[in-house]
Amino acid sequence: MKHNNKLLKDNKPTHSTLHTEPYFNGYPIQDKYQPLIVNNLLVHEKVLMKALSHHKRTSAFRFELKFPRNKQYIVNHAISKFFDSLRVRIKSDIANKNKRLDKKYECKLSYVWVCEYSTSINWHFHVVIFLNRDVYNCFGRLKANEGNMYSRIRAAWASAIGVSFDAALGLVHLPDNDVYDVNTNADNYEQQLEDILYRLSYFAKVQTKPYGQGGDNRFFGYSSL
């Protein structure tokens, strides 16, 4: 994917309402990145509520996916392949856990992603996935070859962009505070909602989104509602 410096400089999404207040729907948001895209903020809340309707105890995993330099990809294709691969890997792991532990675990994958460009790390995705906390609640060791959530994400991304598992190690980045727990029965449930929605509001910033380039690429996506 090639970038257009002018489009990135004059970046404004078409047909989108922008938000410039410190709160949205009663929740605090990261106003230092304003303006924020209202549709994205609404989607964050809807996807989170949908995830909680599947699993009352949900873990939100926050990570970044990077493209190798000097290669071009169609954003839609890469991220779609990633989620298809990750969904299969989670389904297989759930089946193995149920058989080995004589359990009846279920795990519905919900997610939100945005694609951005920065001169320091090129094209990259910011991603959050929502999973059943009773099954998955941490990434695990980053250098593990299998058996934890980080290795599944790494393998799924490697498959999506056609690189080896080893090569994908530097292409999956975990930021600080990479896992959030939300429990609908917790005494601090409202605070948990505030924390994750505040973090997700970063996904709604206009800056660094290459709107206007069109073609086969889009720069914001989410699981079915």
Give the helices and strands as they follow along the chain: HEEEEHEHEEHEEHE
* End-to-end separation: 29 Å
As for the number of domains, it is 1
Number of helices: 5
Radius of gyration: 18 Å
> Would you report the number of β strands?
10
Strand content: 15-25%
User: Judging from the principal axes of the Cα atoms, what is the shape?
Assistant: globular
Fraction of residues in helix: 25-40%
User: What composes the largest sheet?
Assistant: 6 strands, antiparallel
Structural class: alpha+beta
Task: Extract low-pLDDT stretches.
Answer: 1-11
| Mean pLDDT across residues | 88
InterPro entries: YagK_YfjJ_C
Organism: Colwellia psychrerythraea (strain 34H / ATCC BAA-681) (Vibrio psychroerythus)
Pfam family, one: YagK_YfjJ_C
Protein name: YagK/YfjJ C-terminal domain-containing protein
Quickly describe the structure.
This is YagK/YfjJ C-terminal domain-containing protein. The protein has 225 residues and is an alpha+beta fold.
SSE blueprint:
Elements: H1 5-9, E1 18-19, E2 23-24, E3 27-28, E4 36-37, H2 38-54, E5 57-66, H3 75-101, E6 110-118, E7 122-132, H4 149-161, E8 172-173, E9 179-183, H5 189-200, E10 220-222
Antiparallel strand pairs: 1-4, 2-3, 5-7, 5-8, 5-9, 6-7, 6-10
Helix pairs in contact: 3-4
